[in-house]
Amino acid sequence: MAIGIQAQPVGPGPAAPAPLLINDGCTFPQFLGTYSTGQIEFRNTSASITVPNFDGRGELIMVPASEIAHEQYVGTNLVPSVVGVKGMSISGNVAHFSLQDASYRNIYWSMSWHAYKIHPRGSMTYGVNFTNSADFMNLNDTGTVGQCIWAYQGAVGDGMVLSAIPANAVVFMYWDQADTVVQYTPQNRTIHVTHNRMNNNNGQTIGFARIVAFLNTGSVPEHRGGFNIYNASGTCTFSTYNSPFIIRGFISTAGGNPGVTQPMINITTNGLAGGQGGGWQYQHWRGATNQGGSIGTGFGPQFASWTDQYDLMINSTTNIPLPVLSALDYFA
Asked: Pfam families given for it (predicted)?
């Protein structure tokens, strides 16, 4: 028998949940809130978000709650102006974002991010502590650990709408297929799947993928017969009723190998991909690739093209650290 707390989540479905083992190898981020940058002028090269309830202990992590890039046609131009996040750094309770500059005044956009806290590892505190010879994992009642509200496995085609989840859910996906790029638009809950090539907006189908969605709330459903944690107000802040949010590693959106079995990544916009050929320039959103356990980026949906006498295309890769999950924690 493995060492730790074993439980069997009830759901959420439609895919059957995996048994849950809570031990020192788990990291459970506690939700702090969803925060917006407010209106950002197109010419701005930076923005920031302050998370007032992060106390400076442990680690603050940020996960996109909206699109982190935006395009807009200005005036009669045939070429869109594009803005978006190029990088992120965190200092104390402030997340700083460097932005692609579109140089226009009086045109605005905004973005929202979910904020989470990971409690300090390596020092025990009150609550439930799991330890090995070199590390500690602490689980307590000071914040809510998000619950998986939807788990799907099967084929995923371009334009698949996740109608069973709200727009503010956090979505992670695993797939393992060559020449395939995935990008997600949270506003309309749509997954875009394309071939990884320039000037190609034809939809692609992934034969087998696994998707989980998490909802961050002030309370979670109790597991009658499972493991629950309550705060002093009697609110359930952790439960094994549905599979909880478990982080197994981190990776930059620029790519790499997270060393996680069946890595599930937060599918978002990973920057901008431009190309040129046949007298034309092409602008794509940059999406994510996932093959053989390694994460990368590639040509997502194309949203503009123009004659190459105007050299205005943009190639950029968003460089922000995002959590990586393992599909083995969620699928039986």
From this structure: DUF6453
> What is the rounded distance in angstroms from the CA atom of residue 200 to the CA atom of residue 162?
24
Distance, CA of 284 to CA of 160 (rounded, Å): 19
> CA-to-CA distance for 130 and 125, rounded, in angstroms?
11
**Using CA atoms, how far apart are residues 282 and 56, in angstroms rounded to an integer?**
44
Where does residue 300 rank: exposed (0-12), middle (13-18), buried (19+ CB within 10 A)?
buried
Q: Residue 127: which pLDDT band, with cuts at 50, 70 and 90?
A: low
- What is the per-residue pLDDT across 269-290, written as a single tens digit (0 to 9) for each? 888 888 889 898 888 999 999 9
Cα–Cα distance measured from residue 132 to residue 179, given in angstroms and rounded to the nearest whole number: 41
* Phi, psi (rounded to 5 degrees) for 89: -135, 155
Please tell me the distance from the alpha carbon of residue 153 to that of residue 210, in angstroms, as a whole number.
Answer: 4
Per-residue DSSP letter, 289? E
pTM > 0.70: yes
